[in-house]
Structure formats: structure tokens, C-alpha cells
Design brief:
Strand content: 25-35%
Number of domains: 1
Radius of gyration: 12 Å
Structural class: alpha+beta
Number of helices: 2
CATH architecture: 2-Layer Sandwich
Strand order of the largest sheet: 2-3-1-4
CATH topology: Alpha-Beta Plaits
Helix content: 25-40%
Number of strands: 4
CATH class: Alpha Beta
């Protein structure tokens, strides 16, 4: 099975204050069984490609419903 890594930057960005728009996106990743790693600017998570792809839509809806103005994401295939 193919693996994938997603990197997400949810705006607006406030240093040391992720806000509900960011925490909703992170929780969507966590709820899908992924283990999100919140970095200083972006959050990353890895999992099966199908899980990552399906979770991206849920994560986008959660972020925008909680005040995000934009979401930047990158999905890369990984060797698993």
C-alpha cells in the first residue's frame, strides 16, 4: 500500500496561538487515526495514501468552519 505525508499550513497564523481553525484541522487528522506533528509553521502527518486523501476534505471543512482564511497543503508519496 502506498503511503503519504501531508503538510498543512492553516491561516491566519498567530505565533504561539494556533486558534480554533488550526486545532480543528489537527483534530481532523487525529480523528482519522493519523498522528499530527504541529511544527512552528505547519503541521505534518503520515499514513496510508487513501486515509490521507480522504482526510484532507474533512480537515479543510473543519478548518474553514472554525475561521481559517486559507489552507496551504502539500501531499507527498512516501516509501512504506
Amino acid at each position: 500500500m502506498a503511503g503519504a505525508r501531508v503538510e498543512v499550513l492553516v491561516q491566519p497564523f498567530k505565533e504561539n496561538d494556533p486558534g480554533p481553525h488550526v486545532t480543528a484541522a489537527v483534530e481532523a487528522l487525529r480523528s482519522a487515526g493519523l498522528n499530527p506533528d504541529m511544527g512552528p509553521f505547519a503541521t505534518t502527518a503520515e499514513g496510508e495514501l487513501s486515509t490521507v486523501v480522504e482526510t484532507v476534505a474533512t480537515m479543510l471543512r473543519a478548518a474553514f468552519a472554525n475561521g481559517a482564511t486559507s489552507v496551504h497543503l502539500q501531499v507527498d508519496l512516501t516509501d512504506r
